[in-house]
Amino acid sequence: MRSTGITGSALRAGLGGFVGLGLLGSASMGAQPASVPTEVEVRAGDTFSGIAAQLTGIPPRQWRQLYDPQQSNLPNPNRILVGMRLELVTEASGARYLRVAGPARVAHMAAPTAPAPAAVPGPSPAPAASAAVPPVAAAPNSDLVVGILPNIPAPALLSQYEALKHYLERLNENNVRLVVPANFKAFFDSTMRGEYDLAVSAPHLARVAQLDRGMVPLAMYEPRIGALLVAPLDSPIAAAGDLRGKAVAFANPQSLVAMYGQQWLRQKGLEAGKDYEVKGARSDLGVGRMVLVGEAAAVILSSGEFRSLPPDESAKLRVVETFARFPNFILLANPRLDRERIGRLRAQLKGFLADKDDGARFAQATGLTGIVDVDEAVEHELDAFTAATRRSMGYEQ
Predict the structure, then answer these.
(1) Are 397 and 391 in contact (CB under 8 A)?
(2) Do 321 and 354 share a domain, yes or no?
(3) Are 169 and 287 contained in the same domain?
(4) pLDDT score for 141
(5) 114 located within any domain
(6) Deepest in the core among 179, 222, 282, 385, taking most CB within 10 A?
(7) DSSP letters along 45-61, please?
């Protein structure tokens, strides 16, 4: 998936429950005669998208080119099993698809709870859980690893998420281990490598991880996040046009609020690097202090980032404009978790804020009002930022 070419690890990235690749025929980049398909045997660790990429050279995220709901004999491409044989078929028309070789193999698959859609957007949703959330069955002494995007300082995040850790440990047989990487890039790389069982992700990173890695969206936080233009109390800046020729600080140029901010400024006729200077936060000087000492005329940041500023800084700043409200963080599950476990974790997370102890404490610390399903409208909204996200993370094809 990287610009330097598809690596071995990238070939493993993509859709489906992880179940090496045994080649029973030679793969080719060119068309294969329909009577002589390339056949593979699924081994532990394989995914549908990884096999599609290995056999044809297409990027893993383009696995849909090789999935045909009518011809693949595969109701759910998430559910490929060890020992199943997949064959690459090329029709006389040039159309290609992977299909299960032999009807007996399909019988080993769990039947889907609903017919597969014509275009599968990603891992199938787990069955809806009942109001009473039973614990997840898990191997004893197996940690549930939760990766958290470092959008605010790590100590503050760990303090907030201690409530979620305690809640999940009460409902499950697992210990929960919280991981806060050093930066957005480290978080995204670890997510794409499958190092987290659950990932608390910025929405644009979550969408790319869903499309390119097969991570399963479980739920998202509410309310939407406010995108703010902030300036010092005594600043003359009153609108976007006042930023022309000035430096604008961003808490993190790789964040979604930064992407929304630069899009908003383009709509106002201002191009980054031409009409204003983009400045990222310095490790020794946060964005609030950068504005107050004159290193930048204003700052674009999220409402949560603004709340996390030291009180002595935020008291000297004012919100010039809330120019957008974008989707909040999305919670993702690693596709290696089984379908039932994913469904139960989804239900547990959606019921978290209703918990009178841990949930109430988390809501008070974060300002969240709900944890809800991720709907298609949100996914489509985020699609506008997937190309820019891949570029910023070094995963551009």
Answers:
(1) no
(2) no
(3) no
(4) 43
(5) no
(6) 385
(7) T--HHHHHHHHH---GG
Of 148, 156, 143, nearest to 182 by C-alpha is 148
Kindly state whether residues 259 and 312 are assigned to the same domain: yes
The pairing of beta strand 216-222 with beta strand 370-372 = antiparallel
Residue 56: the pLDDT is 80
The answer on 23 and 91 residing in a single domain is yes
The answer to whether 248 touches 217, Cβ cutoff 8 Å, is no
Please state, in angstroms and rounded to a whole number, the distance separating the CA atoms of residues 313 and 293: 11
Name the domain boundary from 326, 341, 373. Answer: 326
Do 220 and 230 lie in one domain? The reply is no
Q: State residue 198's pLDDT score.
A: 97
Confidence (pLDDT) at 355: 96
Q: How many residues are recorded in the chain?
A: 397
* Residue 201 and residue 62 share a domain: no
* Tokens found for residue 195: 């190092």
3-class secondary-structure state, position 353: helix
pLDDT tens-digit readout, 165-192: 999 999 988 899 999 999 999 999 999 9
Cα dihedral across residues 342, 101, 37, 20: positive or negative: positive
- The structure tokens listed for 34 are 């329909």
Supply the CATH number for residue 149's domain.
3.40.190.10
pTM of the model: 0.61
With contact defined as beta carbons under 8 Å apart, do 119 and 64 qualify?
A: yes
Token couple for 42: 């699924």
Angle between helix axes 203-213 and 376-383 (nearest 10 degrees) is 90
For the cut 80, the answer to whether the pLDDT of residue 389 exceeds it is: yes
> Are residue 217 and residue 273 in the same domain, yes or no?
no
> Mean pLDDT highest for which of 98-112, 134-148, 183-197, 249-263?
183-197
**Residue 136, in any domain of the structure:** no
* pLDDT recorded at residue 283: 61
For the chain, the domain total comes to 3
Query: Which of these three, 106, 123, 158, is where a domain ends?
Result: 106
Taking a C-beta distance cutoff of 8 angstroms, is the pair 253, 278 a contact? yes
Distance CA 154, CA 176 (A): 17
Q: What are the structure tokens assigned to 251, written together?
A: 């808490």
